[in-house]
Amino acid sequence: MLSTSSLSFSVPATGGTSAAQTVTLSNSGNAALNISAYSSSNAAFSVSPGSSNGCAAAPLTLAPAATCTLQVTWASGNAEQASGTLQISSNAAGSPAAVTLNGQRESATNQGVAAAPWAVERPASTRCCGA
Residue 11: which of 39, 45, 50, 51 has the closest Cα? Predict the structure, then answer.
């Protein structure tokens, strides 16, 4: 069982790497959940096990009632937007499980950047026509 079916990422208009978001994997069954692989269909989305939450690099096994968390980030590079899918392959019915991934750069106006509200005034000695 997954904690979400989709994640949306944003980065500043200048690009960069998004803040990490998490996907929690839960074993709600009575038997061990064997996760053979997890990966993103788009290399711009990075998937890694959380640092202290029971997840490890695949393959891994989750005992009944156990959970672990994967961290996902988006490195925008030159892209204005990106999409992909996090796939998690396991011995669960309906495998692989999928999480939709979407990344979008913020526009400059969404970041509070506005046109300069000032005008440039020429010194009096350079003004034209007796002004």
Answer: 45
The values of phi and psi at residue 84, to 5°, are: -170, -175
pLDDT per position as a tens digit, 29-67 = 999 999 999 999 999 999 998 766 667 888 989 999 999
Spatial separation of the C-alpha atoms in residues 102 and 113, rounded to whole Å: 24
Q: How far apart are CA 76 and CA 103, in angstroms?
A: 8
CA distance linking residue 84 with residue 101, whole number of Å? 5
Residue type, 79: A
DSSP assignment string, 83-98: EEEEEEEESSTTPSEE
> What is the pTM (predicted TM-score) of this model?
0.77
The token pair that represents 16 in the structure block: 């960069």
Question: For residue 80, what are the contacts with CB-CB under 8 A and spacing of at least 6?
Answer: 104, 105
Q: Look at strands 67-74 and 97-105 and give their pairing.
A: unpaired
Q: Record the tokens describing residue 18, joined without a space.
A: 């998004």
CA 83/CA 76 separation, integer angstroms: 11
The rounded mean pLDDT for the chain is 84
Q: In one letter, which amino acid is 58?
A: A
